[in-house]
Write a structure and sequence with these properties.
six-stranded antiparallel beta sheet, three-stranded antiparallel beta sheet, 2 helices, 156 residues
Length: 156
């Protein structure tokens, strides 16, 4: 069970956050779009820290779980906390895939595939535009004004 409050944003919070999104962020996060391969801002990020949901700030992946998949999108082998990701069967475009969304706000993140490295064998293939990044030593974002859970690490 997560130490973070997974209660969805209120309608007012959702409206405020949505109004601040760029066209690309809106298309990917809220309309389940995909950014072009090999152009996302976090594809080649080698800094140490935590990747959070661009919409609500929930921690999603640690940099220590990031790997170069060669696919053109940031890829991770393990979530920050399994409770922070929700999985949905996706049959769009004539394919059967598993979509990943933020468990708190429902924003589209990307897809997960069973061809990743050990120890999980998973490849969480994400859109950079769905993420924010907090460097180690900095406080995690508190987009919804709920505070950071007691004992929750900073980005590290």
């Amino acid at each position: 069970m997560s130490r973070f409050d997974l209660t969805p944003p209120t309608d007012a919070q959702r409206e405020t956050i949505t109004s601040g999104l760029s066209a690309d962020e809106h298309r990917v996060l809220l309309q389940h779009g995909t950014e072009a391969a090999f152009c996302g801002v976090f594809l080649d990020n080698k800094k140490t820290g935590v990747y959070t949901c661009r919409f609500c700030g929930l921690p999603l992946f640690r940099s220590s779980a990031k790997f170069d998949s060669g696919t053109g999108w940031p890829s991770f082998f393990q979530p920050y906390d399994d409770a922070h990701i929700r999985y949905i069967r996706d049959t769009s475009y004539g394919m059967v895939r598993t979509e990943e969304v933020c468990a708190r706000c429902g924003s589209h993140l990307g897809h997960v595939f069973p061809d990743g490295p050990p120890p999980t064998g998973q490849r969480h293939c994400l859109n950079s535009v769905s993420l924010s990044f907090t460097e180690q030593g900095q406080p995690l974002p508190d987009v919804l004004g709920r505070g950071t859970p007691e004992g929750a690490p900073d980005a590290g």
